[in-house]
Structures are given as structure tokens and as C-alpha cells.
Design brief:
binds zinc ion, single chain, Alpha-Beta Plaits
């Protein structure tokens, strides 16, 4: 049931591990048609080095769809944002891809936890089936 360590489970359409991010998915998300599902994505990650406050604020300026927050625990950050994608794994790969694409913000990171919830079109499945993974 819980196969979250399975490489195939985490693979985006470009064959990248969603937890390491995919720049192609990130770029795809911005170019998707409005009928492609919208996902609310959250990614918790640790950074090898502390991210300066200024860089945290810059994230919002770079992509108004994204917010980067520092959590109270040291070196743990939360990136949230909306992404259009056919699948939750693609939405996660795209959000992490934003980090890869912005190496000046965070150079070395490790994704700890992800969540993707489809917010549009309105899902007709039970809530538990909408949370990914
Ligand atoms: Zn991809």
C-alpha cells in the first residue's frame, strides 16, 4: 500500500525523481492550458545552509504562485504553490523544479515530505483519494 520509496511511483513524465525536482515539469506547469488540473502543492525540505531572509522573500517575487517559509526547526523549509499538471507527481516535480531552477536561493536541499491536492477542476473523489502521495 505504502510504496513511497518506489522509484516508479516518484517518476515524473520526464523520468526524473519528483523529490529531486524537474525543471521541465516546472516550465510545463507555467504553460499548461486552463483545463489541466490545478494542484495545491507543499514541499518540506532541508537546506544544507540557512537560506537568507531576503532570498525567502525573493521567491514570491520570482513566482507569485510560490511561497517559501522557514519553519521553527533549523534548516527546515516549506515551499507551497499552485501548479497545473495532469498528475500529482508532476505537480510536485514542478514545484521542486522551481528550487532546482533557482539555485541562487537554495544550493543543496533534500526533500523530506510532499503533498499535492487537486483544487480544480473540483474532484469528485473522496478527500483521502485526493491527497498525493
Ligand atoms: Zn518532469
Amino acid at each position: 500500500m505504502n510504496n513511497r520509496d518506489d522509484a516508479a511511483f516518484w517518476a515524473c513524465p520526464h523520468g526524473q525523481d519528483a523529490r529531486r525536482g524537474c525543471v521541465a515539469c516546472y516550465e510545463d506547469a507555467a504553460a499548461q492550458e486552463p483545463e489541466v488540473p490545478m494542484w495545491d502543492v507543499a514541499v518540506w525540505f532541508t537546506s544544507r545552509r540557512p537560506i537568507p531572509i531576503k532570498a525567502l522573500k525573493d521567491v514570491h517575487r520570482h513566482g507569485s504562485r510560490f511561497l517559501l517559509d522557514k519553519l521553527s526547526a533549523p534548516y527546515i523549509y516549506l515551499l507551497t504553490g499552485h501548479a497545473r499538471a495532469d498528475q500529482g507527481v508532476q505537480a510536485v516535480a514542478g514545484l521542486v523544479g522551481f528550487l532546482v531552477h533557482n539555485r541562487h536561493v537554495v544550493d543543496e536541499f533534500s526533500v523530506q515530505e510532499t503533498r499535492a491536492v487537486r483544487i480544480s477542476p473540483s474532484p469528485d473523489t473522496p478527500v483521502t483519494d485526493r491527497v498525493w502521495p
